[in-house]
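Recall the central idea of this unit: under ordinary conditions, the amino acid sequence of a chain determines the structure it adopts. In this exercise we apply that idea directly, starting from the sequence alone.
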Amino acid sequence: MNSEDKFAHKAKEYDALQRRLDTANAIAAKIKENINLTKETHIIDFGSGTGLLLEALSNDIAKVTAIDISPSMTSILREKELPCKLDIIELDLTKQDLDIQVDGIVTSMTMHHIKDIKTMLEKFAKMLKSGGFIAIADLESEDGTFHDTDTGVEHFGFENEDLKQLVQESGFKNCKIETVTKISKPHKDFNVFLLTAFK
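Accordingly, the structure predicted from this sequence is:
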């Protein structure tokens, strides 16, 4: 667990920004198009934050295990009432393992904070049941101007084909990647992709 919560200054106002809600809803809609979610589906939301993405998926699933390293973000999530079961785990998955088997793993705008993408993908594979899915949403390759504060950025977005190759090398198949929305900031628009693949 990081002793310094780099997202503490953002947590209370995080859900108030309309573009974050719009982005989460667009990603959730595309996940539902590509993945057959049911009332028996148990997913992990990796880097769940305040829960914007899992809120948008919660009517379609049975349970979500939310994983995040930020106590200030998860404290906001704990206050929310969802129609599905919710477990919250404050854990740094880059340094610790989680002994769990789930039907799918979703993650939104988190992977660019992860230094070793291949190792994380391999951890995802271990936590998935056979036939389980990953749904990774993040920034397409950008010039480094998306973030205006240091929250541990390791990648300025991703090149689609490079990420797709890493996913396939990590044991996933039927990999699909597409642009799903854009995040508009005063100086520029930034494309957001969704990658889906199956174990």
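Residues 18-34 form the longest helix (17 residues).
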